[in-house]
């Protein structure tokens, strides 16, 4: 279900493990439990097969993005099951093109395209006890957003207090390079679709309800998603 209340810079990251550190900053992977070329039509270009994309093609798709404000490294695609590589698939739905549909049972996010197709992305989703379903919409979008830990988390994990004023955007920030903030009836739900640099999280339930895509996939989705876009989260 959705939560009432809003924190403009907070993600739904209520059970973050603060044990990992890297170069003095909190490790992105430790936050997951709490928090390239646009080839969306890859399946139409002959690069995808029934069994998914080759590793060579995946390395191109998920290559480094050096022109970002914080340069994004290449994904170690060997750590991602091939079925979670971005591709275009057949998808029967009555929803309008552009609609985002989250399928937590199968760890996929779909962007509905024209003519019965969809761009499919592999995702991480909420772990047991934090799964939710329902309709929402993209209320706002953020690039390299500031992350602010909720007061409840700071109370449980005092180490997070150092970021009470906000953790600046960057590669170690839990929200990553891009964030779609989900709203319902004008209220921020605290749920997001965000960018992760942890390939091993794709295809697993590790968050407190947020949905994560690889940074390259999230940037692709973000660039094609305007504010007010409908988001449907299916029952798990």
TrEMBL record:
Keyword entries, A-Z: Cell shape, Cell wall biogenesis/degradation, Glycosyltransferase, Hydrolase, Peptidoglycan synthesis, Transferase
Limits of the L,D-TPase catalytic domain: 98-234
InterPro entries, alphabetized: LD-transpeptidase, LD_TPept_cat_dom, TAT_signal, TAT_signal_bac_arc, Transpep_catalytic_dom
Signal peptide annotation: none
A single cellular component GO annotation: extracellular region
Matching Pfam families: YkuD
MF-aspect GO terms: glycosyltransferase activity; peptidoglycan L,D-transpeptidase activity
Pathway: Cell wall biogenesis; peptidoglycan biosynthesis
GO BP annotation list: cell wall organization; peptidoglycan-protein cross-linking; regulation of cell shape
Membership in a protein family: Belongs to the YkuD family.
Protein name per UniProt: L,D-transpeptidase
């Amino acid at each position: 279900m959705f939560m009432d209340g809003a924190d403009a810079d907070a993600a739904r990251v209520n059970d973050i493990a603060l044990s990992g550190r890297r170069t003095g900053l909190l490790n992105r992977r430790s936050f997951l439990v709490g928090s390239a070329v646009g080839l969306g039509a890859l399946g139409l270009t002959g690069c995808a097969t029934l069994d998914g994309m080759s590793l060579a093609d995946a390395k191109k798709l998920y290559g480094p993005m050096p022109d970002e404000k914080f340069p994004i490294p290449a994904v170690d695609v060997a750590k991602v099951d091939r079925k979670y590589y971005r591709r275009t698939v057949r998808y029967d739905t009555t929803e309008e093109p552009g609609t985002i549909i989250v399928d937590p049972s199968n760890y996929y996010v779909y962007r509905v395209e024209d003519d019965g197709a969809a761009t499919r992305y592999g995702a991480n989703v909420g772990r047991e006890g934090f799964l939710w379903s329902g309709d929402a919409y993209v209320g706002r979008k953020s690039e390299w957003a500031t992350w602010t830990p909720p007061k409840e988390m700071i109370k449980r994990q005092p180490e997070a207090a150092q970021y009470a004023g906000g953790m600046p955007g960057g590669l170690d920030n839990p929200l990553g390079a891009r964030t779609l903030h989900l709203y319902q009836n004008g209220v921020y739900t605290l749920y997001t679709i965000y960018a992760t640099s942890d390939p091993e999280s794709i295809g697993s339930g590790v968050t407190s309800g947020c949905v994560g895509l690889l940074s390259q996939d999230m940037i692709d989705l973000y660039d094609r998603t305007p504010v007010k876009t409908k988001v449907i989260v299916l029952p798990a």
